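Researcher: Structure prediction, please.
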Amino acid sequence: MHIILAALLGGLLFVAPAWATPRYVDLTLVSDCTFGNYSIASRTCTGADGDAYNTVAEAISPTVTGDTIYLRAGTYTTRITFTGKTFTAATTLSGYPGDAVTYAPSFTAGNPAITFTNWLVVQDMTISGVNGPTSPNDNSIKGFYITADNWTIQRVTITGFHYHGIYFEGADNATIQDNIIHSQVSTNCVAGTRWYGIYAHNGTNILIRRNDIYGNPGGGIQVYPGPITGLVVRRNAIHANSTCSTSPIGGMVVATDSTGGNLSGVKIYYNEIYGNGPSG
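Model: Predicted structure follows.
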């Protein structure tokens, strides 16, 4: 059995291995369907579409490399963690095609909304900070706070966090594409709480493309302080950010300092950047 990785410019397209198993999470289930008897059509244990569970944690437990967990329509409030799971190829957490899936976790400061180690694709859902902590001075209030490698976030709406929409550091081989990242929250707009849509701290081989980034307190995208190698930022719409009037950043900043490192292989092109607070 072989795993296929198709290389893209500045990022990776992860192709699931042939033995991948789909699992389902359905909040309407009274009990789990663990004999392959879930029905996608009726959302009951009367079919033959695979196993299904009524909590995400139960679906994660048997998940191995290459599997896909589909969340059926509904609002999920329990924090999602893949702690203890180490994957060697793309494994996927996805809203079920055509379903309206919202993940609005209740969690304490210090814990991001989703925790994982590596090789995860998150796609096709809305992730909201509406049920998270609201302290404006707590830098531990996170949606995506990523220190992992080999991951993709795509077709996700990220909104309402008292933190950056996506923050990553030390990440290799990461793709952020086709997302809507908007309206993170800063209560008092003081330094250290003016959040960005995307904050790229450092990493290698990063692709950020085709995202709509708007309404974030500090700015659209910040790349700082590095080192960053092989970053491609293209075809993003970055607009109406810097909602804090005190923010010195407009749509995007790319910089380094003595605490960071070199920026090399950075390509930024075909982005629409307009109407971003005092800095444009």
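Model: Residues 1-11 have pLDDT under 50 and may be disordered.
Researcher: Thanks, that helps.
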